[in-house]
Structure formats: structure tokens, C-alpha cells
Amino acid sequence: MSKTLAEKIWGEHIVRSAQGEPDLIYIDLHLIHEVTSAQAFDGLRLAGRQVRRPDLTIATEDHNTPTLNIDLPIADPVSKLQVDTLRQNCAEFGVRIHSLGDAEQGIVHVVGPQLGLTQPGMTIVCGDSHTSTHGAFGALAFGIGTSEVEHVLATQTLPLVRPKTMAINVDGVLPDGVTAKDVILAIIAKIGTGGGQGYVIEYRGSAIRALSMEGRMTICNMSIEAGARAGLIAPDEKTFEYVRTKPHAPQGADWDAALAYWKTLTTDADAKFDVEISLKAEELAPFVTWGTNPGQGLPLNASVPNPAEIADIEERGAAERALTYMGLEAGVPLKSIKVDTIFLGSCTNGRIEDLRAAAAILKGKKKADSVRMLVVPGSARVRLQAEEEGLDKVFIDFGAEWRNAGCSMCLGMNPDQLAVGERSASTSNRNFEGRQGKGGRTHLVSPLVAAATAIRGTLSSPADL
Amino acid sequence: MEKFVTHTGTAIPLRRSNVDTDQIIPAVYLKRVTKSGFEDGLFAAWRNDPEFVLNQPQYKAATILVAGVDFGTGSSREHAVWALQNYGFKAVISSRFADIFRGNSLKGGLLTVILPQENVEKIWAAIEEDPTASVTVDLEAKNVRLGNEVYPFELDDYTRWRLMEGLDDIGLTLKNIDFVTAYESSRPSYKPKTLPARS
User: Fold this and answer.
1) Where is B94: in which H helix or E strand?
2) Could you give the percent of chain A with pLDDT greater than 70?
3) N or C end: fewer C-beta atoms under 10 angstroms in chain B?
4) Do A145 and B170 touch (CB under 8 A)?
5) Is the ipTM of this complex over 0.90?
């Protein structure tokens, strides 16, 4: 029978299937961080259980770690306890960990791919909703809660109900200045924050194929913002080449066997998706959010919408609330909005290609006096690579702060936060109320828009320079 | 896990859609390494507003949260479930829940009930009219009862059975661990391992 890519990967990981029960699915890789694992390890200890497969498990520290003075003890005692707890748990249960200061430390979704542990055809989970990032390699990857973290630690499996499948086709050529981030923000605006609920999304079409691996990760990363637990893209030569040079790539005969398998990982020509949606690449533009959920976005050339013109009562109320929170007036051009902070980083846009793209625009320029800019590489390895290429100097000369790796201001769990009423242009993934700090106001943008905005001080695209 | 068969209590209307888990519990509250004590973080930002429904005395004793569409979007943090439970909620009613939040809630024994939006609206109206109205969430009968109204809901038999028996998933999977061992014996050798570390 013809199958979609997601159905193929699902089928190959069924450990046990029984009528009226969820499928028991094998997990190839389990990524762990400090925030969602402590209670899971505690559960193991209480039940006298071990980690079944430490060799399929890896931990790093990212969510609450500082990006300044990382050689000093973590100043916040509660954060420190959480990180120390992760270190103790990993030592006790034999789990590999990359701690603050280690060259492989960083945001868990940047670390997996750069180590080559993320490969096509795998099932990958992590107690973090942006695990969908790894779908860019043609893997079935999704976020889980702490109970499920404990379940995977104990059994290396999860009982799961098979999701439905959705295809999102983006065909054509993206206009200049339109990036993967704009594509995914446009998709979320189109289908809504609940549009992907219950589905695995497969991103298809020539505009997707043309994206780099980094761009594909940006797209898959924000699948959860459309409600889909997982999003994936069929692997191709770009994927194989990306994995080939990484530390944990298969070697010798294993490489040949892996490659032969990976080449089968496409949706069959006559396979049926439960839902198909199409976008034309030519019609897309730099995108920015104006509200308090990632579906509340518009092209940068548009104006703040008027809630009174929204027919759906539920959506109108949400828009009214959002504008009040964001301190915005209906009808104001988005490009006239002044921002205070630029955040370049996160598992969405904190990879080397994102830093290069922003640096190319900032080079030789100075930031607007009214803004501060934080550049937070996605991993220590990305930071080292950027420094090798001299990008750190570009950012520092521009007037930006060059920080150490971590989740940082994406979720404001560490000291990197917005103040009350402060407004950001952020390359991260969520513009929820208070996400980047209590009372903070977030506009989600691409690295290109972030860079142009840092120069002008108002939401801008490189074309405005 | 505590068994859930039926629960009767009062309910609180949360007339907001798209309540993300950052609102249910902001990230600054996620640093604890226990599963308890999260009640002070529940809806922390909104609770600063004295008008917010959780601050209204007539709803102080409520154990059933009735929320707008798309409850629990965003972050996978199970702390959102713990915060609701620590505060005293036994069930949440909405017309649609985000997948990860729903999974987390049903693992932890917080019953998430999906009702059509029109029924959510009816319940909102009834509990705003009379905040002391008794609401029953009956998992055995698969319905919500309020006054003379009976609102049926669906839940798959497997999850229902697990909740009614108070069974934990890990214990159930461990009964089938031989299947896992058999599966592992045929996994291809090219699948990556984190140990030993390569650089």
C-alpha cells in the first residue's frame, strides 16, 4: 500500500500493535535538558528503575543557563539547583551530558544535528515542543511531557496514537529577502495555531527543496506553532551531505546501508494525505507578527489589523486583547513600530547560517541608538564557528552584545528578559504574553528583518535600507 | 496515579481562547525540581489583575476549569498540568486542546474533556448565572452534568480504562518489555548511538 513519509517511519518503529490500544513506538534518540527531566529521573529512582538505553540518550543545558559569565557559578540559586540536578542525574544514570562551558553545549535542537545524532528515518523525542526541528532531516521528531520523558528513559518507547497526515506544498521561487522564517510564519497565519492539531505536517514543493538544511530546520521547528506535534521534510542529497561530515555519521559499510535506506524515505507518488494545503512562493513576503500568538502575523508592508473588521467573534476578541497587550493601534503601518530590543538566536534562528545572514546586513553599519541587540548563538559550536569567520567582530562593531549559547531571551528563563512594556523584534518562535519577560512585547521576525530593524530602530526589511 | 471515575464540584469560566502554557505557568516558575508547589505560578501574570476570574471570590472553590478553544498551546511543559492540579483542578473543559498538553493531562490524571463550543458556551452561561452550581464530570458515563443538562463527551476506551483504574503507563509498557527487546535485536547497526561519544 502507498504510504506517506510519516507513515513509513511510524510503521518501522512499531514495537507492538494491539486492537484498541495505542501503538508502542520505539524511540531512536532521546534528548534531555534541565527543565523537563528532573521529575522524570525522580520517578525512576522512586520505582527503582534504570535508564534502559543510555546509549540512545544525550543531555545538555540550555533553557535557564546564563549567556554571560558562564565560567562563574550560576548566580540564581534555583537555576543552579536545576542544572546541578541534571548533572547529578546524568552521572547517576550514565547519561552523556554536555554542560555549560563544553564545546558541544547549546540548545538541544541545535546540538543534535551538529553532532550528527539527528539522521533521516529516526524517531526523536525531547521534553521540549520544538523537537519538531529535527524533522528537517526526514525524522519523526516531537516534543513530549515529563511523564513521557520518564517513560522513554525507562522503556525507550512511547505508547502513541497514530497521527493524521497533512501536506503543505510551497512551490515556486521565494522572492529576494524572503526566508524560511517568513514561509513558516505565513503558513501559521494561514492555518492558525490549531490548524495542525492531530497532524504530522510534511512540507513539500520546490521552494522547500531549495532551502538549506538550516532553513528546513527553521520551518519544521515552528510546526508546533501551527498545533502540529511534528513536521518533516523528505531527505535528499543536501540532507545526506549535511550528515556525512558530522561526528556521529555512520561509517564505512554502515554509511552505505544507511544511505540506501534513507533514499527510500519519500512519500509514495500515489499516497494520500488527510489534508493538503498549498502556498505559492512568489506571493510570500517578509512576515512579522503583530499579536500575542504566532498565527497573528502579516506581511511587513501591511498595517496593524482592525479587530472590528474580523468576522469571527472568537478571533476578534483575541485580536482586541492582543492589541491592548501589545500597545498597538489598529491601522498603524507595521513598519512604523519602534522596537527596543533585537534578539537574534533560538532553536528557530540561532544557527550559523542565521548569524551569517544577519552579519552580512550589519557589516560596516551601526545600530540605531534607541535599540539594544543580543546575539545568542544556538550552540557553543556555532559560537566558535562564528568567531572563526569573524562574525563576532561584525556584531560587536555594530554595537550588539555577543553572548554565549542557550535559549536565552526566547523564553526568558535566564536573566535575558524584556522589561515591562519593552518591545522586541525577535527571531525566536513565540510571541505569547510575557514570553520574553513579564509585560514584554514580542514581534517575531526573520534574521534579515531583525538585522534591518536593528539599523533603523523600527520594524524594517533589508529592502528598506 | 489517583483513579478518576467521577468528580463533582463547582466550575469556573475562563472566557479566553488560545490559552498557551506560558500563560498557564510562566517560564520563571519552571525551575523547581519537584512536581508540587506550582499553584502560585498558575496564570501568574493574569492573577495580578484583581478582576481576573480566578481572583473572584465566588469561584475560589472551583475544581473544574471551563476554557475557550485551543487550551494548552505552545510549550510542552508538564508543569502546566501540575500547576492546575496543585491549585486544585480535577478537570478542564474546552472545545479543543493542544496535543501535547492533552497528552500530559491524561497521563497525569487531570481529565481534559472536549465538548462542542456551543455546550462550552452553555456551561459558561450557567456558571456565571450561578457560580455555586454543581457540575459533575463523569468518566464512567462519559458525560458532564449540570442542572438538568447532560453533555456527552468522547474519550478512547484505552485511556478511559487507564484513568479509571489509575494505572501508570510505564507499568503497562513494562509488561510488554519482551516486545521491546525483540525489536531492539533487529535494529540496524547504522542507527546512531550517543555512547561512546565521537567528536
Assistant:
1) strand B91-94
2) 100
3) C
4) no
5) yes
